[in-house]
From TrEMBL:
Name listed for the protein in its UniProt record: ATP-binding protein
Molecular functions per Gene Ontology: ATP binding
Pfam families: HATPase_c_2
Domain Histidine kinase/HSP90-like ATPase as annotated: residue spans: 21-121
Keyword terms, alphabetized: ATP-binding, Kinase, Nucleotide-binding, Serine/threonine-protein kinase, Transferase
Lineage of origin: Bacteria, Bacillati, Actinomycetota, Actinomycetes, Streptosporangiales
Highest taxon listed in the record's lineage: Bacteria
Length: 158
């Protein structure tokens, strides 16, 4: 069985202008994986990053978002985003809407997309006693045969 794989963490400014960099880095880090898997994980990561910027304190001046990426087993990729700064909201899929309200809703559909594309997702507070921020993660399963050959247990980013 292949050992776990961890990619070096990446840190981004906590504003939406950094989204292109997040996507480009993820594509570079996952070079050699099945393009559909990379595209799906990129879409999920983009939504989670945007939520970090929009709904938490990372979107304020000086805020940052940390991206973690791992392969905890041979057929799973997991991405996690941590907003630093505290005061953020708790991510939740909106459930208390009528069909008419959903038809008129402009926002809050991103986590529904994450829920439908990812095999699992969740969140937890970073040091809740100090309100340091929120960590949101999503896992995506894929065919282990799609793992690029020669992948090392720890991947340094460029």
């Amino acid at each position: 069985m292949r050992p776990r794989v961890f990619w070096e963490h990446r840190v981004y400014p906590g504003h939406l202008s950094g989204l292109g960099g997040v996507r480009a880095d993820l594509a570079a880090d996952l070079a050699g994986f099945d393009p559909d898997t990379v595209d799906t994980l990129t879409l999920v990561t983009s939504e989670l990053f945007a939520n970090c910027c929009k709904y938490t304190d990372s979107g304020h001046e000086g805020g940052e978002v940390l991206r973690a990426l791992s392969m905890p087993d041979p057929g799973t990729l997991r991405v996690g985003l941590s907003d630093f700064g505290g005061g953020g909201g708790v991510p939740a899929v909106p459930r208390e809407r009528t069909a008419d309200e959903w038809d008129r809703a402009e926002g809050q559909r991103g986590l529904l997309m994450v829920e439908n594309l990812a095999s699992a997702w969740g969140h937890h507070r970073l040091a809740p006693w100090a309100d340091l921020g929120t960590h949101v993660w999503a896992s995506l399963t894929f065919d282990p045969a799609g793992v690029p050959p020669g992948l090392r247990p720890y991947v340094f980013t460029r």
